[in-house]
């Protein structure tokens, strides 16, 4: 792990990068914000941005508290709010969020405001919006290259790497009239469901800073929860959009493989095409998730990304033509995955959704899991097939340690003890056997789902599954040890949409007496719970549909969401 | 390569299998056919089936000479021709074809006729056809499992393996009302562009039996060319549908990855998901290609195969909405791939198509190839990553030799000297690097194609590429050494449709003086040509469109085909 004498040590590179990041924040904003930043023992910081009234004007607070992206877009398209003022408002609030949770990586105020001005000029000149996302500030996970900007993805070895072109999705966003305005924090390697790396450090949960914001899109989670961005783009190879979304109380979509363009973005484990990572939106509103997805698909991204599926936005599917038009549907609740039983607040979220749907006349049955552990183990083995070599090659230039845990803040001084689960290197032939196993499991699950036509009474198989996103709400740092509840759908490539439901209430979500444990992991999970630790953390569910059923899943999520609002 | 004393040697297994195959042919058919089978020095046997008038009645000759699948289907759907009589007619003719070219593997007359009777009864009872392929006999490459039938795929080690369920595509064909009626020959491992294996031996070209029928779907090629089947299903991982199609004068489609269900079929190199093999139709008519593809897609195959793309038949795309409605298009001809220049008859085929299109007012420009050799080498390296181990594991139970060449009929006694190009075993991490290279090449080619918008004058990029299928017409056995002209499109995953154009005429397609060779391979290819050797072999072109553009490619092929018919 030694570096050549002639090169700066990796720690020196980090110090330099952090100084440059700090310098990229307008000094006058910073000086106004700093007095508002509480000491670490203030856990819930979600109310603080609105207290920064010296920085955020009343109008800026109105703008940033407009959670419904559809409303924001309407005001931007009409010119009632200019993109410059909307971008400025969100930028200021993003910096506040950053000082509270450490959620940002790249900060480029001037550039974003210049882009916003360009969009405003377009509207003024042409009399029409530039595109379906006209003027909208969009935050981006630190993988999405923007020409001319440094792209570290949390690797010390990538400090000083400047992108020579935009990622395809960034190109699409520009075409749609959007304003990419910040990039957000991630864990080293991206392969953790929390957010910590040697370059930028840790992102924390705005509802309880002792808890993780989730990962790997944890910067997005914290930022959007604090309303520092109206919508952001995360990526998900095992839950990395959905986990921060659930832990931070946001809507989000994990689309199927290759629906949203990935071309030109940086990533870990490049070439791992068996369980591809996908990009998708996180937002405070379901309208944001829908409008983003629709806009990207309508842009014909297959003209930019050779891996993108040539499949137009399917309005019939969105209107649920294949699901009885949205009436008299049959949902199924996954209460547990047969491996780890969720904590009380997660069960409460499922029960809340079930009751809300039933109150609307929808049918809700139970979903019995099928081989979830086998699917998750298969995905893990596929990742492990080449992960260790990938991490070694990437970190080798500077000798930064590969993290072995997310639990300690002094990770940066720990010599690498790479987690064993990611080092089962195999041959290509052995990888093929894992693919074969994966295909068999997917076929089995497909047949299993199709066979539910016998149970629904609708003449159709179950329309969608309602499932936990994790067996817990946001846990303390270093304690998010499994992503099984999300990874299973990556392995099966089912479209999944996260819907926030409520927050942990330590008085309501009391610890239950021990049950008959499903596994050692289940027992460990049971023992981890006490309601005080998790207090105030958001709780959510996933709505799970079929492969490449983004439109239908969004349509069904609208029904669930409306039912929740009606019941609430 | 020794086998245990208690087990029959692999040669004994072959003898037994061949006896059983022979016994599966109705004896009364065989006795009538045999006098018509000429000695091996009769090269062109394409006219022989129609001479077997004792076996094929006039009506049966009319049925089997109905090349247009749309016409066949109309007569079947109206009941003018019953499925039993159509299936009987094609079955008799298939047996003739088999005796001439050795194109069949599994023969199951009673079972097929029982199925045909079931379809006839359905029509009689319900007054409507069973589905879009009502009553149509369909031949299947030896990968497509049918419940209860032996599935050897040309491996001695698989003799005695009986399928316990239908492949998903067979299920779909049943739902569509079709009658699967024979299975067809392939090369050992499927990874050769000719057709020879230790179990069934070699399939030859009906237009010139010294030439190959191509491969790996070479049994389909010979069978359909002799009108022993109206339509067949082949598979294509590097050209295995298109090569026999071109060498035997048939229409065929290589769809993009995962458009047609592969689930439940046997294959070599299972789990090799980087360049997936795909199923597609071969037929004597373009209508067959269209109706098959439309029927399969309309069956919603994603409900049977978890890997199938959820993408409905796109009628707008078929009607060329994205290609100016089919008027004023701009095609581009790939004259050579920058590596090997095609023989004179292939160039003539390209010129014929160019002239025919221009006569219809379509524009035709040149297509300059981009890194075709790099794409093909990348695909080859991906296959080689695990091929040797796959072949070893598969052949190990009986010790049959892995073939090292397709050139000699005494291959069966050659000790395995596995071709070196398929034995570059690598690690999973190294395979990931090949994926990365593949993605980069696909992106480069996509951008390159999109950029042709500057050259077409249509406001669109080139609508489709017209390309050779191979640098030669069907070559002598063992001489089909490269599939680069087809494999390049597998690597890029572009939809490709083969259109027959003419036949080699030794008086027209004379050898040209040497050109400046593009490569050593080019020089070898030049030296291989003399017009007498290739005389009478069919020549064809590929029409190449975008990924998942099956509908558009079929629509454009109809325009090319109509232009050729008008000019002819």
Automatic annotation (TrEMBL), chains A, B:
It comes from the Eukaryota. Transmembrane segments: none annotated. PROSITE patterns: AMIDASES (PS00571). It catalyses: a monocarboxylic acid amide + H2O = a monocarboxylate + NH4(+). It is an enzyme of class 3 (hydrolase). Pfam families: Amidase. InterPro entries: Amidase_CS, Amidase_dom, AS_sf. Its EC number is 3.5.1.4. Keywords: Hydrolase. GO terms for molecular function: amidase activity. The active site is at residues 141, 216, 240. Residues 85-553 form the Amidase domain. Substrate binds at residues 190, 216, 237-240. Belongs to the amidase family. This is amidase. It comes from Neolentinus lepideus HHB14362 ss-1.
């Amino acid at each position: 792990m030694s570096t050549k004498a002639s090169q700066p040590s990796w720690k020196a590179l980090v110090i330099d990068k952090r100084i440059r990041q700090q310098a990229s924040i307008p000094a006058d904003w910073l000086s106004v914000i700093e007095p508002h930043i509480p000491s670490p023992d203030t856990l819930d910081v979600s109310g603080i941005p609105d207290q920064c009234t010296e920085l955020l004007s009343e109008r800026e607070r109105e703008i940033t508290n407009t959670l419904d992206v559809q409303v924001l877009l309407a005001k931007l398209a009409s010119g009632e709010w200019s993109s410059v003022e909307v971008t400025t408002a969100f930028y200021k609030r993003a910096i506040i969020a950053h000082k509270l949770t450490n959620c940002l990586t790249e900060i480029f105020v001037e550039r974003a405001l210049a882009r916003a001005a360009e969009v405003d000029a377009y509207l003024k000149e042409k009399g029409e919006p530039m595109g379906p996302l006209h003027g909208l500030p969009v935050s981006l996970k630190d993988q999405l290259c923007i020409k001319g900007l440094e792209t570290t993805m949390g690797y010390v070895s990538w400090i000083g790497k400047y992108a020579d072109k935009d990622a395809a999705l960034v190109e699409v966003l520009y075409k749609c009239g959007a304003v990419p305005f910040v990039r957000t924090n991630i864990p080293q390697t991206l392969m953790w469901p929390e957010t910590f790396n040697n370059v930028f450090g840790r992102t924390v949960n705005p509802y309880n800073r002792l808890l993780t914001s989730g990962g790997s899109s944890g910067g997005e989670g914290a930022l959007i929860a604090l309303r520092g961005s109206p919508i952001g783009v995360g990526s998900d190879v095992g839950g990395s959009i959905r986990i921060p979304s659930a832990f931070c109380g946001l809507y989000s979509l994990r689309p199927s493989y290759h629906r949203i363009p990935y071309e030109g973005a940086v990533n870990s484990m490049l070439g791992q095409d068996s369980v591809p990572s996908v990009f998708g939106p996180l937002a405070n509103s379901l309208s944001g998730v829908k409008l983003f997805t629709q806009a990207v698909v309508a842009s014909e991204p297959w003209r930019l990304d050779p891996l993108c599926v040539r499949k137009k936005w399917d309005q019939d599917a969105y209107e649920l033509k294949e699901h009885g038009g949205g009436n008299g549907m049959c949902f199924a609740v996954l209460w547990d995955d047969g491996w780890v039983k969720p904590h009380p607040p997660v069960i409460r979220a499922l029960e809340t959704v079930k009751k809300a749907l039933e109150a609307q006349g929808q049918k809700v049955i139970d979903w019995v899991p099928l081989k979830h552990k086998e699917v998750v183990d298969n995905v893990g083995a596929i990742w492990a097939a080449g992960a260790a070599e990938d991490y070694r090659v990437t970190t080798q230039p500077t000798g930064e340690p590969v993290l072995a845990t997310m639990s300690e803040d002094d990770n940066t001084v720990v010599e690498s003890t790479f987690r064993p689960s990611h080092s089962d290197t195999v041959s290509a032939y052995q990888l093929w056997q894992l693919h074969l196993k994966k295909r068999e499991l997917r076929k089995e699950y497909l047949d299993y789902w199709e066979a539910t036509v016998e149970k629904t009474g609708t003449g159709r198989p179950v329309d969608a599954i309602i499932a936990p996103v994790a067996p817990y709400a946001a846990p303390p740092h270093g304690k998010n040890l499994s992503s099984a509840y999300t990874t299973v759908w990556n392995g099966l490539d089912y479209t999944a949409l996260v819907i926030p439901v409520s927050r942990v209430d330590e008085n309501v979500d009391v610890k239950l007496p021990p049950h008959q444990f499903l596994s050692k992991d289940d027992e460990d999970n049971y023992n981890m719970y006490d309601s005080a630790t998790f207090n105030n953390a958001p709780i959510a569910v996933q709505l799970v549909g079929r492969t490449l059923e983004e439109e239908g899943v969004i349509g069904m999520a609208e029904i669930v969401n409306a039912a929740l609002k009606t019941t609430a």
